[in-house]
Amino acid sequence: MASVSLHGLEGLPLVQPGDDLPALLGDALDGAGLRPADGDVLVVAQKIVSKAEGRLRRLADVVPSPRALELAEVVRKDPRLVEVVLSESREVIRAVPNVLIVEHRLGFVMANAGVDQSNVEGDEEVALLLPEAPDDSCRRLREGLERRYGVRLPVVMNDSFGRPWRNGVTGVCIGASGLPTLLDRRGAPDLFGRPLRITEIAVGDELAAAASLVMGQAGEGIPAVLVRGLRLDRQDQGGPDQTATALLRSRQHDLFR
Amino acid sequence: MASVSLHGLEGLPLVQPGDDLPALLGDALDGAGLRPADGDVLVVAQKIVSKAEGRLRRLADVVPSPRALELAEVVRKDPRLVEVVLSESREVIRAVPNVLIVEHRLGFVMANAGVDQSNVEGDEEVALLLPEAPDDSCRRLREGLERRYGVRLPVVMNDSFGRPWRNGVTGVCIGASGLPTLLDRRGAPDLFGRPLRITEIAVGDELAAAASLVMGQAGEGIPAVLVRGLRLDRQDQGGPDQTATALLRSRQHDLFR
Hints:
The structure is a homodimer.
Chain A: E1 3-8, H1 21-31, E2 41-45, H2 46-52, E3 56-58, H3 66-75, H4 79-87, E4 89-96, E5 99-104, E6 109-111, E7 126-128, H5 134-149, E8 155-163, E9 166-177, E10 183-184, E11 200-201, H6 203-215, E12 224-228, H7 232-235
Parallel strand pairs in A: 2-8
Antiparallel strand pairs in A: 1-12, 2-12, 3-7, 4-5, 5-6, 8-9, 10-11
Helix pairs in contact in A: 1-5, 3-4
């Protein structure tokens, strides 16, 4: 029987800038009695990676530009927060009251460039940015944990995105190392031997969403999930090691800007 | 430890129009030794529901309208298929070569109104439509299985959708009965006691995506997944029983048409 299990890692301490995240995650895995095995995938919430990497910006230190002041009036947000969002963005995609959708400098189309004020300890006036290079962060986490356990352990970083046309947020892959994020099924036959019409499966995003089910979204209670039983090696027809960039549609194929 | 397991149901026979799907799913659950328990959720692939409900359209019987002929030239698809798509749609959202995105009559913004030619047995010239009313289909499946097992068994129907800005498809909830599809977290405090900024979680879509990981997408090999260990009762702050309609963003809140 094809079974996949998702194990939430509880009991991580509140992550602080400079923390050794592979060590904290390894200790949490050990504490939960979960010894990673080949075939497992670890999904880690963006928030704890950003915190460990010190991606905090004190809003008191931010001086909004004229453009941020203007945009802040449109979207009814703190101009200093808008300044931080713009500093993380290539382009504003939509700006209406309470909604600011941008293309993040890494290519993600998302609200507020992923800049978040919730769940940052202490001062309300602190913003948490996405990691500088989430794919690299995943690679470092993977390498650290692979050294510790002596197995392959692909790592995915997830965040919560809203979507056009649909209510609510879902978990989305914003970083990855060691696994295919976009399965290429071109040429694979269906049950009746015809080529499949659906050719690419965003398995990185499906992993991110599945982990998000376990994480809940109420904070850092469960900031990492070990996924066990996925047979990516058998499914994979594409590259064995893709980053989250493989999930980004190129501008020329995009119909919704 | 918070753990969720996803159990793929293999060994279902190829579903035919008129088949008693609750009976087939129940037999597959029994065959896998999976006795549903309170707290479980069953995710069922759209294809087998559409087939059981006989939602097949022989293209040989379809006469394309002038509008379908015109649109077919733009999108480079079979005019008869385009006619079927239009008959299932309220509005064309985007039409370019090889891409036809519509608002389905049920409100889903999706490619080809969910009309699919793959994995339909026998004749290449047959199109498979979405169920007439997927939420009702889920309710009937749920009631049938709840009678059989004497437990609550929420049912979600999933399909694969492409997304703006991102490559590949992911599992999406197009029908539901017996569970919250959109968790309302408004007012829930984060770890530091502040109200959460992210207020609604599309748990129906996250369940659909998680199940899709197990189903793979290569056909009907695994057309249903039993999800065990999700604590929706504890998370739920909204209604306990929502349909897939709760996941549809209203037109006035939509920025991407």
